[in-house]
Amino acid sequence: MAEYNLARVTVMLVEDNAFIHQTLDDMLRHFRVEKISKFKNGEEAIVHLKALKLAGDAAPDIIISDLIMSPINGQLLLRWVRTAKESPNRFVPFIMISGAADRDFVASVRDLGVSEFLAKPFSVQTVFSHLSSTIERPRPFVATKGYFGPDRRRLRGEGLEVAEERRRLGDSHITHVYSADKMVQPKSESDVWYFHLPNKLKEKVGGGGADDGPPTLPDDILEKAEETLQRAAMDFSTWASDYLEELSSLCNEAEAVPERRRRLFGEICLLAHELRGQGGTFGYPLVSEFGKMLYEATLDTMKNTDNQVEIVAAHIDAMRVVIRDKISGDGGDVGKEVQATLQAAIQRYLVTE
Q: Tell me, what CATH number does 165's domain have?
C-alpha cells in the first residue's frame, strides 16, 4: 500500500475553540503535516490570505475551517475564498467542520463551493478519510453565473440534489477550461465553464498510481494520533465544565433580566452548538445529544418566556450530571435516567407555558 508524504502539504486551520483547535493541530502533526497556519476566526484567515496574495506567496494547499465562528464564520470565509479577487487561490480545497451537520447547513456550504464537509463529532479516521478524499478524488470545478466551486453532483447520494441537471441540456453551453488562469464568471444563465486542472495536491503528496489502491499512513502513525485524541478526551470534562459554568451564568442573567433574553439565548445557542459538536468526539455522546437539544431550544424562533429559561436550565443540569459523573457512551441505565429526567422537565414546562 502506497503512503502519503503530508510533510509537503501546507494547511490553514481556522477554529475558534482553543481546545478543538489544539486537538486538530496535534492530530495533523501526527499525520506528519508540518506546515500549519492557525487562526481563530474567518476574519484573521482573510487578513492572512490577502497578505499572501499581496506578497505573491503561495496559498495553503488545504483550508480546514469550523463553520460557526465570530465575527466572520466559515460560510463567509468560504464565500470570500471562492469569489474575492484578493483570494490567492479560488480553487483551494476547503474542508468545513461543524457540529451542525443538518441538511440546511450542508446544503448552504455546498452551494458556496465547499470541497468536503466533516461533521462533528469527528475521529482520527474520519479526519484522515476527508483529507484522503480531498487528495484522491477532487471534484472538477464548475463556474456558472451564480456558482463557482467543485461540481456539486457528487453529493447526490446525501440527498442534496442540484437545482437543475445542466447536462440534460447537452454540451453546447459548456466551455472546457484547462488553466486556472482562465477564471471568468459566465455572463449567461445557461453557460457553464468546466475546469480540467491537474491534481497538484496529489502530485505533491505522492501515493502511487491508480492501481495501488488508496494511499494511507503507517498504522503506528494512526495509532499515535488516536492516542492523542484519547488523551484530549481526558481533559474534555474540564473544558466542558467551564462551558457549563458560562451557560449557567447566562441562564441566570436571562432569568433576572427578561429584556435581555433574546441576546442571551443567542449566546447560549452558540455555546450549545460547541458542546453539540464536541461531546461525541471525546467519549460523551450524551453531551452532544443534550447540546443539540439546547441548541434547538434557543434558536430565534423560540419564546423568551420564564418557562423557556427553565427548559434551558434543565438542559444545563443534565449535561452537568453527565460530566460530573463521567457518564460515557450511552450511560446505560444511568444515562437513560438522566435522559428521562430531562424530557420530563421539558414536558412539564411546555405544558404549563
A: 3.40.50.2300
Condensed to tens digits (0 to 9), the pLDDT of residues 166-183 reads 444 556 678 888 888 766
Q: How crowded is the C-beta side of 247, counted as CA atoms within 13 Å?
A: 30
Q: Given the C-alpha cell 465553464, which residue does it identify?
A: 193
Answer yes or no: is pLDDT of 36 > 50: yes
Return d(Cα 336, Cα 130) in angstroms, integer: 33
Residue carrying C-alpha cell 484522491: 136
Q: Which domain holds residue 322?
A: 235-351
Distance between CA atoms of residues 39 and 74, nearest Å: 12
Q: Is the pLDDT of residue 209 over 50?
A: yes
For residue 214, name the pLDDT band (cuts at 50, 70, 90). low
pLDDT in tens, 56-78: 999 999 999 999 888 899 999 99
- Residue 277 φ then ψ, to 5°: -80, -25
Q: What are phi and psi of 86, to 5 degrees?
A: -80, -5
**In angstroms, how far is the first alpha carbon of the chain from the final one?**
61
Where a domain ends, among 193, 220, 247?
Answer: 220
CATH number of the domain at 257, please.
1.20.120
Q: What's the rounded Cα separation, in Å, for the pair 309 and 276?
A: 19
Among 234, 146, 228, residue whose Cα is nearest residue 190: 146
Average pLDDT, integer, range 180-208:
81
Would you tell me how many other CB atoms lie within 10 Å of the CB of residue 309? 22
Q: Is residue 226 part of a domain?
A: no
User: 286: which residues sit within 8 A by CB, 6+ positions away?
Assistant: 279, 318, 319, 322, 327, 330, 331, 335, 338, 339
Classify residue 299: in a domain, yes or no: yes
Question: Whole-model pTM?
Answer: 0.83
